[in-house]
Design brief:
single chain; alpha+beta; seven-stranded mixed beta sheet; five-stranded mixed beta sheet; binds adenosine-5'-triphosphate
Length: 443
């Protein structure tokens, strides 16, 4: 089984990600995040917001409407140009992105391909009860445009001065011709984006600084290796003087993970033109100087972040059985391999599992209040069925950093056993100092 199949099967088996609408036979490449996936995704988004919005005095966040005035997408160029060339097979009628196929033969059946057609990727819908002309709107294909549209409002209400950024995270929709590779390319996905406004003369310095920020985020997420692909002249958007794609070696090939682009003042210029509003910035030190700021745009995909984090975290290990052998009621032997998701601790969907050695009332009466107390602080799980070895294995498989076992000694010595996911070492800790112990370990 290749790594991708292992991640897919783990996702389904343990509740990270399910096929969307599965009981109805699914819906082409849609995926639902299950209980663990939802926690994982939330951790990524919360960490990003903390790091790039809350902890930075020069960045503010917004949360704009998903459906915007359709003029936004005329101004941004999406109505006229946000399309992929599509080719269709004359024989089996399967469709492909023209830039994804080699030559003129269908990759599925070998049939002849039709000439490429342009296909707009924006989803259309209607506002109001009738489908009249003029009621047509689009689901946003990116989160970025709202930061330009709200630029003036943010400037007026926050008194931010250059350089400063506006950030947003949320869903984006693209009617992709060939979605696939699990959550890598879907028609509905989430983005985290920043538009960082600067003086034109300073764009290079800020571009470098954001590239460094992206590298540091990648390491924080647990990514060991990536590629920084400079997009050459002629392949960049016409307004961009520099674009770097952050690419990753997925099991299905080297492809984009994130992007960083210098967009000049293209977007604000367009919105000024289409809205008729003055969007210029006045330099407080030089009030006569009015201009449209230039923009550095770092962009992160949430779903691709999650996929890469899972690929990086997955490990299968040979384990000496003695390491796994613990006092279990039936004393059963353990197998000698384990699957462990070595998520960075901040990312783990469950931080602490509380595992009473058996279902007996004398253990539950200590373990349940302990769970209630710890759950105020961390994402916790309570599990009292199966042998303790099997339960450790389950927690390793979802990447839980700490397991707390309540055993028959606990009532006597007021202590529990804490097991570390990575070292599998166990430590006896007094209940009175457990919470602080875990806070320090998980910090
Ligand atoms: P690609 O070349 O893979 O289609 P793109 O260059 O069109 O991507 P951008 O428009 O730069 O992507 O979008 C920013 C980020 O949003 C990407 O780096 C990626 O992480 C994410 N993203 C884009 N399209 C999708 C999709 N269909 N499914 C999941 N994530 C996506």
């Amino acid at each position: 089984m290749d790594l991708m199949d292992k991640i897919l099967s783990l996702s389904k088996r343990r509740g990270f990600i399910f096929p969307g609408s599965e009981i109805y036979g699914g819906l082409a490449n849609s995926w639902d995040y299950g209980p663990l996936g939802a926690e994982l995704k939330k951790n990524i988004k919360d960490e990003w917001w903390k790091r790039f919005v809350r902890q930075r005095p020069d960045v503010v966040g917004i949360d704009a409407a998903l459906i915007m005035n359709p003029k936004v997408w005329e101004a941004s160029g999406h109505v006229a140009g946000f399309s992929d060339p599509l080719v269709e097979c004359k024989k089996c009628h399967e469709r492909f992105r023209a830039d994804h196929v080699d030559g003129t033969k269908c990759p599925s059946c070998g049939g002849e391909l039709m000439a490429p057609k342009q296909f707009n990727l924006m989803f259309k819908t209607n506002i109001g009860p009738t489908e009249e002309q003029g009621s047509e709107v689009y689901l946003r294909p990116e989160t970025a445009q709202a930061m330009f549209v709200d630029f003036k409002n943010v400037l007026d209400t926050t008194r931010k001065r250059l350089p400063f950024g506006i950030a947003q995270m949320g869903k984006a929709f693209r009617n992709e011709i060939t979605p696939g590779n699990f959550i890598f390319r879907t028609r509905e996905f989430e983005q985290m984006e920043i538009e960082y406004f600067v003086k034109e003369s300073e764009w290079e310095k800020h571009f470098e600084a954001w590239l460094e920020e992206m590298r540091s985020w990648l390491k924080h997420l647990g990514v060991k290796k990536w590629h920084e692909q400079e997009i050459p002249d002629g392949e960049r958007a016409h307004y961009s003087k520099r674009t770097v794609d952050i690419e990753y070696d997925y099991p299905f090939g080297r492809k984009e993970l994130y992007g960083l682009a210098y967009r000049g003042n293209f977007d604000l210029t367009q919105h000024e033109k289409f809205s008729g509003q003055d969007l210029k910035y006045t330099d407080p030190e030089n009030p006569k100087e009015k201009f449209l700021p230039h923009v550095i745009e770092p962009t992160w995909g949430v779903d691709r972040s999650l996929l890469v984090a899972m690929l990086e975290a997955y490990a299968e290990e040979e384990v000496k059985s003695s390491k796994l052998k613990v006092e279990s009621e039936n004393g059963e032997e353990e197998e000698d391999t384990r699957v462990v998701m070595r998520f960075p601790k901040w990312l783990a969907p469950v931080k602490v599992a509380i595992l009473p050695l058996s279902k007996k009332e004398e253990l539950a009466k200590i373990a349940k209040p302990l769970h209630a107390e710890l759950a105020k602080e961390f994402a916790c799980e309570y599990d009292e069925t199966q042998s303790i070895g099997k339960r450790y294995r389950r927690q390793d498989e979802i990447g839980t950093p700490y397991c707390v076992t309540v055993d028959f000694e606990t009532a006597n010595d007021q202590s529990v056993t804490v097991r570390d996911r990575d070292t599998m070492k166990q430590e006896r800790i007094a209940i009175s100092s457990l919470k602080q112990y875990l806070i320090d370990k998980l910090a």
